[in-house]
Amino acid sequence: QDIIDLGRRVIDETSVKSDLQVLQLSSDHSTSLPEEVMRIKAEHPDDESSILNGRVKGTLNVTRAFGAGFLKQPKWNDAL
Length: 80
Known about the structure:
The protein is mostly helical. Helix content is 19%, strand content 5%. β1 and β2 form a beta hairpin. The termini are far apart.
């Protein structure tokens, strides 16, 4: 079987061969998913602003990102 990465493209099912199957291989990591919001809040129970206005620390919509060091605890920034 071949796997084709279609990213976020929408497939017009009328133009696809009937023997193809579409599988979602990954999921979004954003505050639009309740389970991601619950995960962040569970990992940071003492930080009431971990999710603020539907965003991580009121800034980011994505919940897992490289380069968001300014949102990390100071001890982790100091290690860099």
